[in-house]
Amino acid sequence: MRNLKNSIIFLGLILISSFNIKAQQPSQKPIRLAIAGLTHGHSAFILGRKDKSDFTLVGIYEPNRELALRLAKTYNFNPELIHKDLGKMLDSVKPDAVVAFGSIYEHMAVVEACAPRGIHVMVEKPLAANTEHALKMKELAEKFHIFLLTDYETSWYPSTAKSFQLVNDSNYVGDLKKVVIHDGHQGPKEIGVSKEFLDWLTDPVQNGGGALMDFGCYGANLMTYLKKGEQPFSVTAVTRHFKPDIYPKVDDEATIIVSYAAAQCIIQASWNWPFGRKDMEIYGKLGSIIALNNNTMRLRNGKMEAEKTIQVTSNDIAVYVDPFSYFADVIKGKIKMTKFDPYSLENNVLVVKILEAAKLSAATGKTVIFRK
C-alpha cells in the first residue's frame, strides 16, 4: 500500500513539473499587427495573406477612408479596423508590430509613432526618402530597441540567397569585380497602378525621386549585401526624362555607377523597360553568376567548358519566400538578422546614402565622393 501511495505522489510531482515547464514556455500566440497606410500597391501582399497564423490584424491606419473601404470590400476585412489617426490607433489596439504601406516620405512618421511605444516596424523599400530621415529612423530604432526592417521583393528570391552563397565561395567566382543589376518595368502608369499609388510615386518629395528611387534601391541593397556592408568610395549617376508628359516631376530612367576599392556596380533602374525585370549579373575573377529571376540562374567558372542553367528554390537553399514570416520570426527571436542582410537597418541606411549621392551626381553632372 505504501509503495502504491509513493507511486501516486511521484506521478503527481511529474505532472506538476510538466505543467510548470509548459507554463514557462514562450507564448506562440499570433503577433498583433497593424498596417500604417494603404496607398502603396504592395499592401495587397499583407491584405491578401489569409492562410497564415503568425499575425492577427488588429488595426489599419488610412486617412483616405474611400480607399480603405474599397480595399475592405476587396479583401474582406472588417471596416471597424480602419482608423484615421495613427497615434490613437496604436494606443487603442496596442499592436506588437506595424507594416508601413504609405509613401516613402511617410516612413519616418510611422517610426516616430511606433518606436517610443516599443512597436516593431517593417517598411516597403526603400527605407527613407532621404538620408536625414534614414538616420533619424535608425536613431529611434536603436534608442527604443525595436526592429526596423525594409522589405524588397528580391530579398525573397532563392536566386539572391544562392548568389550570395556562391560569391562567398572563393573557389567559385573568386574576387568580386563587377555587378550589373537591372530593375524596373514599363512605368507605373503604364502597368496600371492605382491613382493613390501613382500620386505619390511620381512626387519628388513623397517618393524622393522617380525611377532612381523606386528601382535604384534594389541594386544598392543587393550590392551592399554582396559586399557585406563595404562602403563605396564614389557614386556617379545619370538620369533621363524620356516621358515628361507622363512623369513631369521625376526621372523615369537612371544609371548609377557605384565604385568600390576593388569592384564596380552598375545599377540600371528604369520605367522604360519593355517588360518587368529584376535580374542581376555577377562577375568575379574566376567565374560568373547571372540570376535571371527568382529561380533561374546561369553559372560558369573556369572549371566549366560551358555555362549551365539551374533552377533554385527554397528547398535548395535557406530563404524566406514570405517577408512577413521573416518579420514574425525576427520578432519572436527564432532567427537573427546578420548585420548587412537585405532587410537590415545597417544595409538600408547605406542604401539611402547611395541613392542620395546618385541624385546629387545626376543633378550636378559630377561624381560624388562618398563619405562616411
What does this structure look like?
The protein has 372 residues and is of the alpha/beta class. The protein has two domains: 31-152, NAD(P)-binding Rossmann-like Domain (Rossmann fold, 3-Layer(aba) Sandwich); 154-316 and 343-369, Dihydrodipicolinate Reductase, domain 2, CATH 3.30.360.10. The protein has helices at residues 2-24, 43-47, 65-75, 86-93, 107-114, 131-143, 158-167, 188-191, 195-201, 211-226, 323-331, 345-364, and strands spanning 31-36, 55-61, 82-83, 97-100, 120-124, 148-151, 176-184, 234-240, 253-259, 264-270, 277-284, 287-291, 296-301, 308-311, 368-369. The strands form two sheets. A nine-stranded mixed β-sheet has the order 14-13-12-11-7-10-9-8-15. Strands 3-2-1-4-5-6 form a six-stranded parallel β-sheet, sandwiched between helices. Strand 11 and strand 12 (287-291) form a beta hairpin. Helix 5 (107-114) packs parallel to helix 6 (131-143), helix 6 (131-143) packs antiparallel against helix 12 and helix 10 crosses helix 12. The longest helix is centred in the first third of the chain and has 23 residues, at 2-24. The chain is globular and about 60 Å long. Residues 1-26 have low confidence and may be disordered.
